[in-house]
Amino acid sequence: MDKLKMQTANKADENFRKLAEMFPNAVTETIDENGEVVRAIDKDVLMQEINTKVVDGKEERYQFTWPDKKKSVLLANAPISKTLRPCREESVDFDTTENLYIEGDNLEVLKLLQETYLGKIKMIYIDPPYNTGSDFVYEDDFVQSADEYLANSGQYDKDGNRLAPNPESNGRFHTDWLNMIYPRLKLAKDLLTDDGVIFISIDDNEQENLKKCCDEVFGGQNFVAQLVWERAYAPKNDARFISNSHDYVLMYARNLDGFVIGRLPRTEEANARYQNPDNDPRGVWKPSDLSVKTYNAACDYPITTPSGRVIEPPAGRCWRLSKNAFLERLQDNRIYFGADGNSVPCMKRFLTELKYDGMAPTSIMFYKDVGHSQEGAKEVTKLLNAGVFDGPKPVRLLTRLLTLANLKDDSLVLDFFSGSATTAHAIMQMNADKGSHIKYVMVQLPEVCDGKGTAYKAGYKTICEIGKERIRRAGKKIKEENPLTTQYLDIGFRVLKCDSSNMEDVYFTPKDYMDKQQSLFVDNIKK
User: Fold this and answer.
1) What is the pTM (predicted TM-score) of this model?
2) What residues have CB less than 8 Å from 265, skipping those under 6 apart?
């Protein structure tokens, strides 16, 4: 009989098996720290197999590293003995909903999601701590041995938190933040579909390090864009040097070759650029420059306008069309010389003949289009009747990112730093507007709210309580505002809590128990 798995998969073992299948000649044996003979990978043989030049010893090379990096990799691979325990009383429509709200350390939750959601998440969005010196980062203790970490995994400190302050005076300021984000990104990557995409909000404090992390985890070749979000609509006059008005959103595809970006709806402003001054029956069009910088002798020829004026290409340039191609378009009335027939020629681009549906997104996201930070704060305050969360992202920003992800009607979206649950709010709103059935998985550490803060005074003891209540109220509000189109809208969510294994702890073999104790383990599933 197969034994039940008591812990998550050991990703180091999985990686070993994959390497052994690809390079069996690299499999060897060695003696571990306990003096036991174990299977291993011969680094030198492996390097020779995958490289035309062996990188060895202290030879200089391009690399991105920091203290404890190797240990953070081990942390990502280490298995845990945990489970996700359902909490029906805090859920909404538990039996019918397809959405999840998971409470727990996201590193542990990401490991638990590996088997069920491996390669199934179309989009991931996270808004991790920015490491400003005044916020908190997850404290993953590398001082412990591997066995100690596994034994204590998920335990909270004396203040009931897994978060620790990271002031700029800390000698490990960047190291602690990198040790936090790196293993989580490694686990997140495996959850993405082949055409999936991840968005990560960040500011200047760790933008450079985050991009290097993502280049290493997702591959620099899968970098899509570094979006700039205009988060502030007015300058701060008390700024010491420059009033910072923007944040970044890094965007990486799981596989750039398989990713197709979602395009934005056309705006009235964009369509207004298309006109029809010559009453062309094909409809409105926009003029396009006929000259290009890349010189080609075959495209260097004079053009005679209807008025008889002879026009040469601008100095150092040529026409974008060969002479024959130009004459074909001239015959088809696709060249325009101005109302007087004497202007520099241009090509006509018809609105009805655009190659793509919608508009190509730009790297700058202006607040007039996607909202600003104060808008995000007002949304939460209005829903919960109190200012209970600092720095929530506006729904319009998440709607833009959901659009760029090019989601299908039944896509899965993951946010494992869900905070006030803006992502869930935006997904419900998009489903209501488009009739889609996008599903979400929200993950949030039950971080305790400051006992003296507004949130605690409003009755919210943890960040999770804020997020869950926001989803409840936002879903109810969306249905009330759209009663005819939201009949089948899923506004529910199942609450799951990361907890100890469902299996009873058995520390001894059966022979070590007295007969009268055997009955305790007739059923080894916890109540």
Assistant:
1) 0.80
2) 358, 359
Distance CA 265, CA 400 (A): 11
Residue 354 CA, chain-centre distance (Å), reads 30
Q: Within a 10 A sphere around the Cβ of 244, how many other Cβ atoms? A: 13
Nearest Cα residue to 398 out of 351, 460, 442 = 442
CB atoms near residue 356 (< 10 Å): 8
89 by DSSP, 3-state: which?
Answer: helix
Structure confidence at residue 131 (pLDDT): 83
List C-alpha distances in Å: 55 to 45, 219, 226.
12, 20, 31
| Contact between residue 361 and residue 263 where contact means Cβ atoms under 8 Å apart | yes
Which of 359, 375, 369 lies closest to 399, judged by CA?
A: 369
Amino acid identity at 509: T
CB 301 within 8 A of CB 324: no
What is the structure's pLDDT at 15? 84
Residue 138 identity: Y
Residue 414 CB partners (closer than 8 Å, separation 6+): 113, 117, 121, 123, 124, 125, 188, 191, 440, 441, 443
108 sits in which H/E element: helix 106-112
DSSP 262-284: PPBPPPHHHHTT-B-TT--TT--
- What dihedral do alpha carbons 297, 302, 303, 309 form, nearest 10°? 160
- Percent above pLDDT 90 for the chain: 60
In 3D, which of 518, 497, 476, 482 has the Cα closest to residue 93? Answer: 476
Which residues of the chain are under the pLDDT cut of 50? 1, 141-161, 506-508
